[in-house]
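Subject: Re: docking follow-up (S-adenosylmethionine)

Dear J.,

Thanks for your patience while I sorted out the input files. As discussed at Tuesday's group meeting, I've set up the holo structure prediction with S-adenosylmethionine included as the bound ligand rather than trying to dock it afterwards. The sequence and the ligand SMILES I used are pasted below, so you can double-check that they match what you have on your end before we go further.
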Amino acid sequence: MPTPSEVLWDRELHTAAKHKVYETYFNAWFPILLQSRYARGGITYAEGFAGPGEYADRSPGSPLIALRSALQCAAPPTPRRPVNFLLAERDGNRLYHLRGLLESELGSLDPTYLRSRGLTVDAREGDCETVLPRLLSEHQAWHKPMLVILDTWGAAVSFSLLRRIAGSKSAEAIVTIQPQHFVRFATDPEHFGDNIFGPVLWRDVQHQATPHKAEYIRSQYRRTLNEAAFRYVLDFQLADEKSNLLYLVYGKSTRTTASATETPVTRTSRRLQSNRRHRPQPSDGSSRNMLPAYPTSAPQSRRYATSRCSRPCTSPARRLRPSNDC
Ligand SMILES: C[S@@+](CC[C@H](N)C(=O)[O-])C[C@H]1O[C@@H](n2cnc3c(N)ncnc32)[C@H](O)[C@@H]1O
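The structure tokens for the complex came back this morning:
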């Protein structure tokens, strides 16, 4: 789909699946974090590419999905366990639309009123790369639990922004990346991919056999998150009926949020997996050593989401090269 220019656009199949993943995750994340001891200092939900808040068919966008998830969870925000919603959007008309929806949802965006409900909502116009770090600084969100959604049209974000977020001890991020953005232009020396992948060798995708190119980008982007200092990395693969792929790559920095064995992401992975009718077997053994093992080799003729989780690559040799066991 060409990048939409209007304020609202049609919700694609990829987007509907992405929202399902987000919603499942948010429904675990908010109650776990809000009931943890970390909630006392406040927790943050942030988006760098917030969008207008809804689609042409009026289905809610990610900021609204997150807000509803927080407000309706088992432990909704209170002044003693507050939640910041920090949202950046470059397009002024979309931001205006989003603010209107947030206001109708909450009754008012008056900061004093919101504080009495345990909320801060700051939706700001501008480029994610500059506005998002500024929002996180102004609201003193660094080094407190935060979930950052970086939902671009598929071109991902700069490695330097990722590294900054990963450097915050309790950060989790979900980045959208569409492999086609990088598969097609790997021979272009000016392509922005170097800025996205940082030290990771993504341009070798040009030497991969065509059926393996998207998978190569996926595995290299996971390494990018590891290089950025996200300790745990997991990805969801979304395929539409034409097998166009979109990856949601999740990273978590060091501090444990709830318990070592049951974080929101393991719970979400399990739930999504149990919803699948078929569980395809790994074709290449690539899920060895991954916890939990969720193969991405599912048939692509139907829409689906798969995920898998790994420990970070520690060997310098492995860090920049694809292999089957990390
Ligand atoms: C894929 S949409 C986001 C959809 C939203 N996350 C949702 O699920 O409802 C991407 C949004 O990012 C905005 N955008 C594009 N480039 C941006 C940038 N550099 N900084 C901030 N926002 C940007 C676009 O205007 C668009 O609204």
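A couple of observations from a first look. Strands lie at 43-47, 83-89, 119-125, 146-150, 171-177, 232-239, 245-252, 304-310. The domain at 13-322 is CATH 3.40.50.150 (Rossmann fold).

Let me know if you'd like me to rerun anything.

Best regards,
T.
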